Sequence to fold (455 residues):
Amino acid sequence: MSNEYQPVIGLEIHIELATQSKMFCSCSAYHFEVEPNIHCCPVCLGLPGALPVPNKKAIDWTIMLGLALNCQIAKESKFDRKNYFYPDLPKGYQISQYDAPLCNNGHLEIKAFTEEQRASNDQFPTLKTIRIRRVHLEEDTGKLLHTEIDGKACTMIDFNRSGVPLLEVVTEPDFENSAQVDKFLKKLQLIVRYLGISSADMEKGSMRLEPNISVRKPNQKGLPEYKVEIKNINSFKFARKAIDYEILRHRELLEKSETPVQETRGWNEPKSKTFSQREKEEANDYRYFPEPDIPPMTFTKEEIREIQSWIPELPEAKAKRFVSDYQLSEYNTQQLIENKSLGQYFEKVVENTKKLSPTQIANWLINKKVNIDRVSPKDLIKIITESRQVFEINNEDLEKVIARVIKENPQAVNDYRAGKTQIISFFLGQVIRLTNPGIDKTKTTIAIIRYLTKK
Fold:
């Protein structure tokens, strides 16, 4: 790999927290499909004399995510003023965190292919650790609305979103390609949803992505001397496309001995390309200083332990348990855990029946796309039982049927023993023909393999 151009990618992910009130005032934090400028007050409008009061739940939730991401939690933390002038920032500064974030030095593991594996068409992804530099808390900005009035183009500002709690996750530049970024983002989104701290709905802007991209020259050591940030991407698909586009653009410039400009760019989906917005700022451009109206925060070990106790079973742990306890396939497991409510519903159905196997229940939920808000677990059991006519057969009778099928199909047996393992589906079909379509197919397949092996 030393003779290849190597992408270097880090992420900044903004997640709006689902608190009822805003970060520093009591205004409602809900701003979707709401009449403009009805959820605002002197604090979130930045009027003179207004004093911010931190939202404790937002602070606790930020720490909870930090713990879920294996971060160190600060014993002392504070808010800072990030100074910049933009129309959607009413105060002329944003209350954020700079040198004392709530959480730092975490990590999250993903299964993904390295660039070397992709080049060699490797079939088995690597377990890769992505380091989390920090998880901190700030306030969101207002929203610019570009429209026309009396035929003239104009920009209006909706301050309903101004001051909404905004959590930011910053990674180290540990990603090598867009596929790794995709895996990380989807895993992070699922963790956030399991914690119940945000919908992380990208279409509504509750989760926004900002990749930082550069490309290392062949044989170059250390980080490149530049990076390009792509702002406010609201789709996993767009993130992949934008990153791939930028990597190619950077390589083409580097091959001409040109260094890409360090800047902020946007993503134009209709044209499938990025575009320049402005030169990228450095930390000193924001003139950070401690927020004078909010005292520093301190956290005891007891407080951190209490927040730790709020963390439910997370997706990765649930997936391992579903495989071990219910003998589900990895595919079925992933389908069930991607929706926290669906996984919980599945377990309620399993608890209420001994006639149906976990695999039968999982297959029905996944393939039939059951509306779990309208169908109770007991009603689903009745539906599956009546519709599929689940067939029970004892082990002795099942083995007799399998023995008959194997005796009547010697060539298929020879094919299996010669390595054509896909012939198992033929044997399964013959057993079903002689018994019932509702037979437990997983149990039957295992029995067929066991019978063939012992003979």
In short: The chain has a mean pLDDT of 91.
